[in-house]
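Q: Structure for this?
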Amino acid sequence: MALHRLSLRLRPTVAHVRSIHTSRYGRQQEAAAVDSESEPISVFRTQENDPASQSEKQIGQFYTLPAEHIRLLFPHGLPNRYQQQVKTFNEACMMVRQPALEAISYLKKADYSKPALRYLFYGVKGSGKTMSLCHSVHFCYTQGWVVLHIPDAHLWVKNCKELMPSSYKSSRFDQPLQATSWLRNFKITNEPFLSKIKIKQRYVWTKRESTEEGRPLGELVDQGTSRVKSSSDVVAAVMKELRLQCGHPESNFRLAVAVDGVNALWGKSTIKKEDKSAVDPEELTLVYNLRKLLKNDWIGGAIITTLSQTGSLYTPKSAYLPQELLGEVRSYLPLKPNSLSAFKNPLLLLKHHSFLPAVRKLKIKYSLLFESKTMSIIIYILFFSSICFFCKRLFSLSKELCFLHSIT
Amino acid sequence: MLGSSLKHIFSMAASVAGLLKPWTPSVVLVRWSRYNPYYLEPEVRREAYSRPEAELSAEEQEERKLKELRPIKAATCSTTSSVFDDPLISKFVRMIMTDGNKVLAREIITQTLENIKRKQVEKYHKTPAGKKEEIECNPYTIFHTALENCKPVVGLASIQKGGKSYQVPIPLTDNRRRFLAMKWMITECRENKHRRTHMYEKLSQELLAAFEKEGNVIKKRQELHKMAEANRAYAHYRWW
């Protein structure tokens, strides 16, 4: 795996790692450490903290997310392990990955007067799909878009403690707890937009409660968080308003819909009705309305999604391709019409497709493979996050980690 | 001359062959190694082989020559010459293991080390710049130092004299001291902590406390020392 090249990169850095080590005795002067730290920073870390200005030169390097952004943008979006790392290292460093950069470049160039483009990250477990999603969402946030981030769609189709029949449509079911927690996080992320966007329709919740036309969106969200019973319907209303309003010249915002684990919406659920029969995801209000949002019949935004086998139900562990996780990909239109070969090789199912006639299927992103980024990850963890165990044997340590990774 | 040398070689060959056969000791103990004591322990660490000839002292050179001729025991499956292999950690893993579930024991220890590291790194980030050097972040050194702090210096043995049994202070071997430290640590974490915490959480708390010379294990060690000090008068009852 080009260990020779990696070792050449390591050699100049090993010398001053000894000054950054954290043993009790014999610590070198901090000044010397600070000076020599500037060397490895340029190799494994970038100062380009704005996703809009990142390019291929920074692939494999780490950029820091500001703490404010983490608190506002990702109250619920980051993976658990990553949140632990953020807490331990006191900083949030994300690696710049090629698929994320590609998605961001498409987001920059897309025509927002046409129907929303859909992006799908897929790949094997641990290849960085969720992190790439978060990277793209961070880009959208820095550009001032409204972010609708569903951290894990699998959580909406399993382990439901409270299932209520919907007041709006009798055949559907409500999930008040999930809806309220999502609304709370949505409020934290999109605080500035809640007062600017006005709703265009009157919503009646009960005999005495209703939200009039022209009220700010914030009131709708507050209604959902305070009245737990109608929270799922509030979520549906919020989605509808945003979908109808964005892209029009009078509303000057763009909508980014980010869904992690989108295969949950079209899979099976483990929620049972009272007569022990399984609930179809379509019968859940939240899922039904999210599916409507994922249809690309609205303009002025983008839909970024991820496949996930980890939380999914009734899928084998080895499945990671879209065909396996999302079901039959009937209506893909590859560049050449009627080419069956596209189904066998998902990498062909790419390229710009704004006008997919299908209801279900989405535009695919490249799969993510964790190749030569191992070294930068190791270097980041060892050098900057003060996990220097055996500083004398650092080189053999990294070599061993690289070897272990290449054989797994 | 030739004949005698040949005879010498044959007799040596016969005795060596005898030592390589299946062997039982003359006094059969309950736990004994099936290897003939003729066999030497394997040296797994890579650093031991990379040292040049000149660096070795006379005894080490003798040992090397011996290793060329003598048979060597097979290394166990769990020993590696990897950088991450630590004999003390392996011993601790084996002591925590129950029902042969070494995977679980190893998992617990890895999580413990990670937990210690996380706590120390968080503490490191919170301390002001002047005091950052005093925080030890390496979980392996914390583990080693904590166990060192838990090791008792003298132990007590129950010796019967004149119908009465006395608690007599006795010297302990290194192995026994290490065993007692590990045993106390594990029993303390299993029994005296809250039921609903994970083992790795309990272990990391106790190890960090022992590193700072606080905690129940250190207290137990101090009590043992006090008992030994109190029973100093009976020390002459020991006959070995």
